[in-house]
Amino acid sequence: RKEVEQDPGPFNVPEGATVAFNCTYSNSASQSFFWYRQDCRKEPKLLMSVYSSGNEDGRFTAQLNRASQYISLLIRDSKLSDSATYLCVVKRTDSWGKLQFGAGTQVVVTP
Amino acid sequence: GAGVSQTPSNKVTEKGKYVELRCDPISGHTALYWYRQSLGQGPEFLIYFQGTGAADDSGLPNDRFFAVRPEGSVSTLKIQRTERGDSAVYLCASSRGQGETQYFGPGTRLLVL
Questions:
Q1: Does position B98 have pLDDT exceeding 90, yes or no?
Q2: Chain A contact set for B101 (CB, 8 A)
Q3: A67-98 pLDDT per residue, tens
Q4: Which residues 6+ apart lie within 8 Å of A89 measured at CB?
Q5: Which of A7, A65, A68, A87 has the fewest CB atoms within 10 Å of its CB?
Q6: Interfacial residues of A (vs B; Cβ cutoff 8 Å)
Q7: pLDDT digit string (tens) for A32-66?
Q8: Please, is A7 exposed, middle or buried when counting C-beta atoms within 10 Å of its C-beta (0-12, 13-18, 19+)?
Q9: Nearest CA in chain B to A5
Q10: B15, B112 in Cβ contact below 8 A?
Q11: Which residues of B are less than 8 Å from A46 in CB distance?
């Protein structure tokens, strides 16, 4: 079983709509959580960190549920430019340098 | 400022050959990481350096893979006796310090024929 699992999608979202998707992680030693965004044939870029109390960054909201070991990302008022693959990332306490990536969830925002 | 740079951007080689992939981290970043991303997958950790030393090389798949960072800045990932299964995008990242935000380079696309 992979350490970080994501629904690959694609999630087809009309422009202006809201989309949400989850990621589950298997290792309870996971300490830090992030969402990265990756455009086609580009490098991953940090979208946002995920904090225990949940956090927002503009139209993006991230939630963490440690008891159930999942992380969620919600995108409100979707823009065409939000089309990308969203990578769920965890970092464990026993290896501060190693990011564990999920396979990504593809989001396609349509006009 | 300049981001992480990687050269070459593309590399085509034949099975059995040796390749070197180079990474120039962001100036002043002490930590450097290598990942490998296969089609349809997320990046997979290979190795990371804190300064000149490899702090964690647990992701290197076998002894054909080796990485160095002799002066604590530029790093080279070396793959011996390449196999078709080594074909992937090799991503380098750097961070200001250990455990801080990792910034990725554009990657080197390796194709082994």
A1: no
A2: 46
A3: 999 999 999 999 999 999 999 999 987 777 78
A4: A4, A33, A34, A35, A36, A99, A100, A101, A102
A5: A68
A6: 4, 8, 42-46, 87, 91, 95-104
A7: 999 999 999 999 999 999 988 889 999 999 999 99
A8: middle
A9: B42
A10: yes
A11: 101-103
pLDDT at B49: 95
The pLDDT of B6-29, averaged and rounded, is 97
Rounded CA-CA distance B45/A104 in Å is: 15
**Terminal CA-CA length for chain B:** 37
Say how far apart CA B31 and CA B55 lie, in whole Å.
9
From the CA of A22, how many Å to the nearest CA of chain B?
Answer: 15
* For B6, nearest residue in chain A (alpha carbons): A43
Which chain A residues contact residue B103 at CB under 8 A? 46
